[in-house]
Amino acid sequence: MEIKEIKVKSIIVKTNLPEGDFVINPYIGCQHGCKYCYARFMKRFSGHTEPWGTFIDVKINAPDLIPKDTNKYKDKSINIGSVTDPYQPIEKKYKLTRKILKRLILLQPHLDLMTKSDLVLRDIDLFKQFKDCTVALSLSVLDDGIRKELEPLSASADKRINALKELHKAKIPTVLFISPIFPEMADWKRLINKTKSFVDEYWFENLNLYPSIKGEVYRFLRRNKPELVEKYKKIYSKNSDYWNIEENKIKKFCKDSKINCKIYFHHNPSIHS
């Protein structure tokens, strides 16, 4: 793992995310090394040529760039962790996310965090000081053997589920982001049934085979689930309606179960064929 400390000129950045005003990413790169991560496109802008998951740039001056007195972000949403995980293992050493949170308390934005790590529990004391704070943990595969192959340094499913439970106990609004949904591997219904007593909302996203990750995903399948290779090719063929059908199943299940949900599916398989 190549770790480099860098200084940046800004840390709160305008975003084009469908639900958000600004984003903060304390790090460039991510130690989790997820095979399906869309954020590897960041290599184009950071100058990194190393494989995704093998480098981290630590934005060492990030907390100092949070203004101390401004109304610019009041009632605006700030998402922490749009192209990196703010609680990846290196956060234990640098505590950048924690320092950033401390600075943001005075500004009181609508705060959203996304992570795959139970390290998020460390900062419950800070989350409680925001009037509007939601913490989302992403998880889609309960099989820990598959999880280790897909997300080498991420927390186990049990640790993430327990983190949601503890956040709920602390009265922090929780989201389980079931993403990405790998056909035949991600059992979203079982995940909901295991967690519905302590999760406030569910978000869903299908596996999107961006050109940058397509090869990685098929290499993973050939090594671990060779019987699924042909099925995936059909799912991601030009005329497949697989994801439309799956989305309707999720909507019906959530409606029947009175579960709050948001679906962020991508519906253009032809670009991957």
Give a structural overview.
With 273 residues, the protein is of the alpha/beta class. It has a single domain (2-272), classed as pyruvate-formate lyase- activating enzyme, CATH 3.80.30. It has helices spanning 43-46, 91-94, 96-105, 124-127, 144-150, 157-169, 188-195, 211-224, 229-235, 242-256; strands at residues 2-6, 13-14, 22-24, 27-28, 55-59, 77-80, 110-115, 133-138, 174-181, 201-206, 261-263. The strands form two sheets. Strands 2-3-6-7-8-9-10-11 form an eight-stranded mixed beta sheet, with helices on one face. Strand 2 and strand 3 (22-24) form a beta hairpin. Residues 269-273 have low confidence and may be disordered.
Q: Can you tell me the number of structural domains?
A: 1
CATH-defined architecture: Alpha-Beta Horseshoe
Topology, number of strands: 11
- List the uncertain runs: 269-273
Q: Order of strands side by side in the largest beta sheet?
A: 2-3-6-7-8-9-10-11
Order of helices and strands: EEEEHEEHHEHEHHEHEHHHE
Average the pLDDT over all residues and give the rounded result: 92
For the record, the CATH class is Alpha Beta
Number of helices: 10
List the defining traits of the structure above:
three-stranded mixed beta sheet; alpha/beta; 273 residues; pyruvate-formate lyase- activating enzyme; globular
